Amino acid sequence: MKKSRLFLSALLCCAVSVGGFSQEAFSNCAAAFLNNKLVVDEYSPKSKCTLSDTATGELTVCTANLSPEKNVPVDKIKFKIALRDKSTGTLTMFSNETYKQVDIRKVLTRCKKGDHIVLITTDTEYALPHNEILIN
To answer: Which residue in 109, 110, 114 sits closest to 134, CA to CA?
Structure first.
């Protein structure tokens, strides 16, 4: 009887401890940046993410300090890339790689005008509300 109580007490302590270390889902906001410039036109529910098919530079997904005056990327986070076809709406993985940054030209070689680049975070800690970038 004492052994089973001791085991249950130890199990309960472990469960409580592990719960304290986990991050709450979507507790930190992130945004897409191209050359450290915010891709979304404004960080609001009505905003749009667009890039020219001739864009150049490094695409990143970062936590950010956002303000009306300035938007500053803070920490790069891991992400994956999918592409949404304009004609069919089909979503396909760009690659199996996980990125912290990628040359946008490499991604754009597989896109045509009207397609979307879809950014996927690999950790539920980060919310990325503007995760689709229209190519125009």
So the answer is: 114
